[in-house]
Design brief:
2 copies of one chain form a homodimer. Helices cover 19% and strands 27% of the residues of chain A. With 410 residues, chain A is of the alpha+beta class. Chain A folds into 2 domains: 90 residues, Fumarylacetoacetase, N-terminal domain (SH3 type barrels, Roll); 287 residues, Fumarylacetoacetate hydrolase, domain 2, CATH 3.90.850. In chain A, the strands form 7 sheets. In chain A, strands 6, 7, 8, 13, 14, 16, 17 and 22 form an 8-stranded mixed β-sheet that branches. Chain A is globular.
Chain lengths: 410, 410
């Protein structure tokens, strides 16, 4: 086994040649030179070096310090580059050239793979929105009247999107319990996670021109895992009337790997049946391609599984979110990132936030080092996921992880 | 007069050498080469060419296609560059070199002068927030309980920030009157303005490290006028519970000129007295520099003045907004832009939105071409402003204007 070539990952490896997600890495030898990498098994191919070595015209897209040129290149280029990469890692004639360009994953540092333009976060799980509504508005309707008519979303802070592995400093801010006369200031005492999938826009669209449901694949390149860290106590005090702000803006973590949509053909699935008729720009009942993705997420805290949210249960699809986000004429830019919203399924162990899992702190989660309601300093949260691939092989979506460090003194 | 040198603007010109705002322009001869310009009277100095011609080391900051390097350079550089520019346009020995580098304003095209990183919009006028509360929650308290404890804000879409003069396409979207059974789709019928001042961040701050009140001047370079176009009908239906989204994200216009804070020393003024004690990170009572700016805004529709909002009446200051925005550890980037929120004074003619001026369409504004509640296609909205400068001379803040074009068919 120790002599096995990195070009021969084990059969059934979720990062086999059927997957080929993109990232950006540096090596210990050249920490100042970020480069595009493509994952194969537990190795990363220096894709730019491969393109150069093979005299490929795609060096213009791959021999770059970030994914942005590839993202902007469009669907035909995405397909052609993927075909080329598949050939490079599978055709025996390329073996000698390619093998030395594969770096062990544990010998490289992964970076945020593209410049995040605008970051939008949605709220697309009916189970999540229902749970949140029951927790915060126990006497009212769980879902707001607009929820089934449009995918609710808001803009987040793109400057604080960080790559998996980045430590997350516990945020401080104002909180106020309903019974308190005035707010108090201090480190958040309800630091939470939100297990999400993030969609990465490649091809821009002009201002004033909506992007139709059916044009999703022409604009969206791929997806990542996303953890939308949330300070529930800050959020609860600030969010009326203009929505979440500091409760979310301190950090959002994404996985280092962007999985192209083309690797997820076998994972496409129909979203749940809709209860109310949709306006035409959101009505996907006649779309050729099913709008959902069968992605199985696992959330761990300090290595212990706390939830297994099923992305297939999301009410609103990524294509609907894109159509909604642009129906007012808002333009898209390369690097726009939008989160699905917290993924929660119908079962208790499928809930994608501690808010839901502990019912806003009423219940505790048992970990080997003690119970938790919300996150403690030092906690490490990791989300992993996979989706069905061709021939029953899984497509790995990598992981997004982050460790909580204490709020600075003061 | 026709022979007057562009280096000699009329006495009292609000764009005299005491002002010197920065922008980015192209000429008809070289439309593909954006360059940094500094306004003097009705001319714009090609600042990079001037720096080159005079052998100035500031060519590295000025001979660039955007303001970003200057913004990032920091407070000492801002001061030194401003001193140099002042000398270039006032010292007789430079006249012969500088005069040919001044282009008439009407012969150049002004561009968005820097790359907008994150865009945040606040809600800092007590008069505005009170009016909005009375309109939308007539039976409740006008201000939400958090309003006087923290500057409420939210993230907007930075990708749709456009420079003054850019046409604004009327957005379409969902709206639903309370009595309607279901939402309808179509062009907004309540297209509005919000007269604001926008603050431009120059120097970044690291994630996890709040920026203190007193460090405002180390991070914020200057300000612009800002019109936060708002579709009130879209906003009303979508904004509960996560805040404004499509009602705002179609376009935000900013003036072409960024006025450095150094030009506004004489305009500093104390904010209104605060009604409730502030938490230490927001308490500016012991700050050396008064936190407000005495900026007088005029809003016109099709040339007719409809409002004169006084910025000096804003409850929350730009320094408080910056301290709040980062108190959770959110980082700053060069090019971050934050809007003050709609500027409304206590008087009816000081209200900075049509929502308030027409009391959500109950009243009409008379224009020569007919009455208005909200904006009609073809309407041109222009905001101008000035502030007190040294020796009683005004500091002009330029203008932000935009014309509404019809929503695309379909």
């Amino acid at each position: 086994m120790s002599e096995q070539s990195p070009l021969d990952p084990a059969e059934g490896d979720p990062f086999g040649p059927h997957n080929l997600p993109y990232g950006v890495f540096t090596t210990a030898g050249e920490p100042g030179r970020p480069r595009v990498g493509v994952r194969l098994g537990n190795h990363v191919l220096d894709a730019g070096a491969a393109a150069r070595a093979l005299g490929s015209p795609y060096a213009a897209l791959l021999d770059r310090p970030g994914l942005d040129p590839l993202l902007a290149a469009g669907r035909t280029a995405w397909r052609d580059v993927r075909r080329a990469l598949t050939a490079w890692v599978t055709v025996p004639a390329h073996r000698e050239t390619i093998e030395p360009l594969l770096h062990p994953l544990d010998a490289v540092t992964m970076l945020l793979p593209y410049q995040v333009a605008d970051y939008v976060d949605f709220y697309a799980s009916e189970h999540h929105a229902t749970n949140v509504g029951r927790i915060f508005r126990p006497d009212g309707e769980a879902l707001t009247p607009n929820w089934k008519h449009l995918p609710i979303g808001y803009h987040g802070r793109s400057g604080t999107v960080v790559v998996s592995g980045t430590e997350v400093v516990r945020p401080s801010g104002q909180r106020k319990a309903p019974a308190d006369a005035a707010p108090v200031f201090g480190p958040s005492v309800k630091l939470d996670i939100e297990a999400e999938v993030g969609f990465v826009v490649g091809v821009p669209s002009p201002q004033g021109r909506p992007v139709a449901l059916g044009d999703f694949r022409d604009h969206v390149f791929g997806l990542s895992l996303l953890n939308d860290w949330s300070a529930r106590d800050l959020q609860a005090w600030e969010y009326v009337p203009l929505g979440p702000f500091l409760g979310k803006s301190f950090a959002t973590s994404v996985s280092a790997w962007v999985t192209p949509l083309e690797a997820l053909e076998a994972a496409r699935t129909s979203p749940p049946a809709r209860d109310v008729p949709l306006l035409p720009y959101l009505d996907d009942s006649a779309e050729e391609e099913p709008g959902g993705f069968d992605i199985r997420i696992t959330v761990t805290v300090n290595g212990q599984v706390i939830a297994e949210p099923p992305f297939a249960t999301m009410y609103w699809t990524a294509a609907q979110q894109l159509a909604h986000m642009t129906v007012n004429g808002a333009s898209l830019r390369t690097g726009d990132l939008y989160g699905s919203g917290t993924v929660s399924g119908p079962e208790v162990h499928q809930r994608g936030s501690l808010l839901e899992l502990t019912w806003n702190g009423r219940d505790r989660i048992d970990l080997p080092d003690g119970g938790r309601t919300f996150l403690a300093d030092g906690d490490e949260v990791t989300m992993t996921a996979w989706a069905p691939g061709p021939d029953g092989v899984r497509v790995g979506l990598g992981e997004v992880s982050g460790r909580i460090t204490a709020a600075p003194a003061g």
